[in-house]
Amino acid sequence: MSFDEPGEERFRPDDGCPLFSQALEDHLVAVSRGEAPNRGRFCGNCYTPIGPGTMECPHCGESTTAGRRPVNAVPEAVMETLRAQRKTESRWVTWMAYLGLLIAIVGGLAFVLAVPFLKGSLIWATVVYGLILLVGGRSLAGILGGYYGDRIGFERARANTRAAWERIVAERASTKA
Ligand SMILES: [Zn+2]
């Protein structure tokens, strides 16, 4: 699960927080890269981009007439929430990948030192250690970072996103009154 591939579907938890729809995330990524302006028509509840004639948000089901009115820009707080979410996610991926590399370095060394034949041959020990680093380091970094880091990072980041969403909803309710 990578979130930098455009158009790739991410896991969408059904936890009561409508942030972020795929369309909104794609839009905000494009805005942050300067590829699109932060203008358009967005659901007044979850800020999913919607068409000019859309009557009901395809993501959260908010009615554009009976519910919250559509807005023409995504609020800064929502953009900031996505920024924070992705930062947390990528941090976990990176650190778990380093952990995988560290395991290969230490584990490879332990292996080479534990095999008597390798212990007696500097050349072979170097060759085997090099291969362990190359293959093991790469796969462990990929598994720990790309799989576990991705998952843990997403869970952590999602908890923050839920909290941010609650703040945004509370803020909206207070400014409306
Ligand atoms: Zn919506």
Tell me what you see in this structure:
There is one protein chain. By secondary structure, the protein is mainly α. It has helices at about 20-30, 75-115, 115-120, 120-175. α2 packs antiparallel against α4. The protein is elongated. The two termini are about 40 Å apart. It binds zinc ion. Zinc ion binds near residues 18 and 45.
Bound molecules: zinc ion
So how many helices?
4
Strand percentage lies at under 5%
Largest sheet: none
Radius of gyration: 23 Å
N/C terminus separation: 41 Å
Approximate helicity band: 55-70%
Number of strands: 0
Ranges with pLDDT <50 over ≥5 residues?
none
| Helix/strand class | mainly alpha
The total tally of domains equals: 2
Query: What sequence of helices (H) and strands (E) makes up the elements?
Result: HHHH
Look at the structure and give the mean pLDDT.
92
Q: Based on CA inertia axes, which overall geometry fits?
A: elongated
Keywords:
177 residues; mainly alpha; 4 helices; 62% helix; elongated; binds zinc ion
